[in-house]
Amino acid sequence: ALFRQVAFSSFGAAVLATTCLMLCGYLIFGDACDGLLLHNFAVEDHGAALLRVATLVSVLGVHPLTFLGLRDACAPLLVGRLRLASERGLRLAICACVFTLSYFFRNVAKIIAVRGAVLGSMVVYCLPCAVYLSSERGRRARPSTRLFHRSLMAYGALMAVVGGACVLRS
Predict the structure, then answer these.
(1) Contact 123, 153 (CB under 8 A)
(2) How many CB atoms lie within 10 A of CB 117?
(3) Over the stretch 2-26, which tens digit does the pLDDT of each residue have?
(4) Which are the contacts of 32, defined by CB distance < 8 A and separation ≥ 6?
(5) What is the crossing angle of helices 127-134 and 143-169, to 10°?
(6) Whole-angstrom Cα distance, residue 85 to residue 7?
């Protein structure tokens, strides 16, 4: 009961905060809410400059965490199966891939949009179903319930592909 109350309160607060931010953005820019909003402010606007710095700190702060997660997920698979000598080669290979991708993708907004389209769909549709199906409750569920969750996972994977393709084509 307490978990349910905390979950509903948290999601409610997240919906309220997101709605407020979206409304503020629309009230400031109107129909010109296209692209990166920080480009629509004047260069002399000190608040926008502060937000640009905060965005830079966010990107620089999140990258190492994402890198560590990717390395930790890939290391057992690649070091063990491909017989790489150490994780140092894996780290260098990941850095080389990121550098190569950064050379071909000049627009960071496009990368963020692809990430949002693909991972958003996976987090909303696929991961909860996978967690449920792998739980004890999911294993004891009726076959129709398990089929529903598998169908929802398939739908989420399809939407990730469609969303990613739509972003890349735009």
Answers:
(1) no
(2) 20
(3) 877 887 888 888 888 878 887 887 7
(4) 40
(5) 160
(6) 44
